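Exercise 7. Given the encoded structure of a 74-residue chain, write a plausible sequence.
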């Protein structure tokens, strides 16, 4: 049994970095040689949810499908 003078367990504080990574991510640019790259760091679970949403979307088209459709339309 805890003594009355023992401190109460601290509530877990929300991590501001985690909330940014889960919502919009952190974007930065890399310049190397003549190229410029835009990078976004996001939470792994967030990435997996976005990837699943794209896969389940009827608007998503694989590169093989887009190649075939462009060949047919020519």
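Solution.
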């Amino acid at each position: 049994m805890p003594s009355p003078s023992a401190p109460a367990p601290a509530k877990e504080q929300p991590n501001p970095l985690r909330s940014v990574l889960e919502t919009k991510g952190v974007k930065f640019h890399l310049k190397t040689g003549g190229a410029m790259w835009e990078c976004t760091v996001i939470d792994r679970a967030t990435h997996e949810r976005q990837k699943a949403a794209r896969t389940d979307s009827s608007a998503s088209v694989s590169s093989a499908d887009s190649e075939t459709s462009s060949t047919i339309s020519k």
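Remark. The beta strands are 26-32, 35-41. Students should compare their own answers with the one above.
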